[in-house]
Design a protein that fits this description.
CATH topology of the largest domain: Threonyl-tRNA Synthetase, Chain A, domain 2
Strand content: 35-45%
CATH class of the largest domain: Alpha Beta
CATH architecture of the largest domain: 2-Layer Sandwich
Order of helices and strands: EEEEEEEEHEEHEHEEEE
CATH superfamily of the largest domain: Threonyl-trna Synthetase, Chain A, domain 2
Number of helices: 3
Distance between the termini: 40 Å
Strand order of the largest sheet: 3-2-8-5-6-7
Largest sheet: 6 strands, antiparallel
Radius of gyration: 19 Å
Number of domains: 2
Length: about 250
């Protein structure tokens, strides 16, 4: 892509925060450089919290380019870098573009990410790590003295999926988050604070915790899942692998 130096740009409007089902938007390029493009608004989710960054396409009058990854830049949570495929010509700052994500890929991540929250509701213990992949995901738990059974966890997950609980984002202030330790399950990654408010994910009657990822609107949308291996990763650390069940 172009070696145009990066210019300073304002924080992007993150449209996926309010509507994870929005697949396309019009935007203006605010900066271009070897590491990627910045837009004034975007539907592309940047890699964070174990969820991969979106891929997709940018198109403009006279050209188009594949976005192969989306990452956070050094400017904070609203600094989103759209990484173009090698050799792609980048549109110049000021260019109007149409940004469109690879929806089927994103939707799989949304289903798995919401399923990870269901898993959190079934396992007592702090989350020490997690990762979402293509058709599978894993969560690591600190569970001293507790034995985890994959059959019972599979049954519990599919029960919660079948109950079709509503899934909604909520916002709380930094002070409200600090006052309730139960809103943060992760030991290694703390939710971003300092802006005055923090985003929660509320699975009605099931789970409530800080999360900035993209999720489905109801648990029934996840589909049937199964727990694979439960791995011993230390004296108290257990890795639970989940995947979509075979159709």
């Amino acid at each position: 892509m172009s070696d145009t130096p990066v210019t300073q740009s304002a924080a992007a409007e993150l449209l996926f925060r309010d509507d994870a089902y929005l697949t396309r938007c019009e935007a203006t390029v605010t900066a271009a450089g070897p590491e990627g493009l910045r837009l004034d608004r975007t539907v592309f989710y940047a890699e964070s919290g174990g969820q991969p960054g979106d891929s997709g396409t940018l198109s403009w009058d006279g050209g188009s380019a594949r976005v192969v990854d989306t990452r956070k830049g050094p400017g904070g949570a609203d600094d989103i870098v759209h990484v173009l495929e090698e050799g792609a010509e980048a549109p110049a700052p000021g260019t109007r573009v149409a940004a469109e994500i690879d929806w089927e890929r994103r939707h799989r991540f949304m289903r798995l990410h919401t399923c990870m929250h269901l898993l959190c509701s079934l396992v007592e213990g702090e989350v020490t790590g997690g990762q979402i992949g293509e058709g599978k995901a894993r969560l690591d738990f600190n569970v001293p003295g507790q034995t985890l059974d994959k059959e019972s966890l599979t049954e519990g997950l599919n029960r919660l999926v079948a109950e079709d609980h509503p899934v909604r984002p909520r916002w709380v202030t930094d002070a409200e988050l600090a006052a309730d330790a139960n809103l943060v399950r992760t030991m290694s990654v703390r939710p971003p604070s300092g802006s005055g408010r923090v985003r929660l994910l509320d699975i009605e009657g099931v789970d409530l915790q800080a999360c900035g990822g993209t999720h489905v609107a109801r648990t029934g949308e996840i589909g049937r899942v199964e727990v694979g291996k439960i791995e011993n990763k230390g004296r108290q650390n257990r890795r639970v692998n989940i995947r979509f069940a075979a159709e």
